[in-house]
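Ticket #297: bound-state structure for 0GY.
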Amino acid sequence: MPDRITSWHSSPTKPRFTPPPGAVDAHCHVFGPMALHSFSPKAKYLPQDAGPEMLFALRDHLGFSRNVIVQASCHGTDNAATLDAIAKSDGKARGVAVVDPAIADNELAALHDGGIRGIRFNFLKRLVDDAPKDKFLEVAGRLPKDWHVVIYFEADILEEMRAFIDAVPVPVVVDHMGRPDVSQGPDGPEMRAFRSLLDSRSDIWFKPTCPDRLDAIKEGGRGDPWDAFASAVAPLVSDYADRCIWGTDWPHPNMQDEIPDDGHLVDMIPRIAPTEELQRKLLVTNPMKLYWPEQCE
Ligand code: 0GY
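RESOLUTION: The complex was predicted; output attached.
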């Protein structure tokens, strides 16, 4: 069995940026705890425990109000850890599940009752063994009302993803903008290709997240303070301000070699969303529409 890894900062700084009231960390995960929720036998990494108490302490430390917990690949299609964290959140968390596409309708309804509002399709070969597009489309066609699909892929497969994304019958949220090469700048080919995807449907949302992954030293970037990320992503947030949501990505799966300081991640927000209006859309209005629609006017 591989060693269990730690991928999060033990004492992140307090951010200088204060999120607006009601801010949502709309991309984070929980790992275990393993004694309660074991990891999948197919997991590609084996993390240390990072359970709900740690997540909620970080939420408070960073000045956020709510979390959207995205089922991490290390838990496979058993969403118990995510559901347990939502149940312990006092209504301050909702989630995105990963399901076996053969899931029954009544099981989807049970996930809805547990606070799930979307399902995630992961296309990263280093994280999952297979991603059956036909089965994904079948289950996407019978999701509970107001759910959406979250898709995680890398820029090199964007073109081959287009027909699939076009066929998804509910809104689509793209994790980490489909991981463009931010060193190419705001008008580089990969950012232009992502803009063209956003222009293909008005209900494709995105997460301008993970400077630590997209501007990582090991990926050829410059690392913290992630200047290439800031300059490539700020125009995208401004041009598609009604379609972006933001998250820490804590506990940063697989980032054990270049662990980000979560306070620094929060301080990226005013660099990509410089006005109060943009910050409110990114952190409050937009994620509330997707995850707490009943609380929106
Ligand atoms: C992320 C990114 C990664 C991992 C997962 O589910 C996961 O394990 O999403 C990654 O390794 O790039 O968004 O958490």
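RESOLUTION NOTES: The mean pLDDT is 97.
TICKET STATUS: resolved
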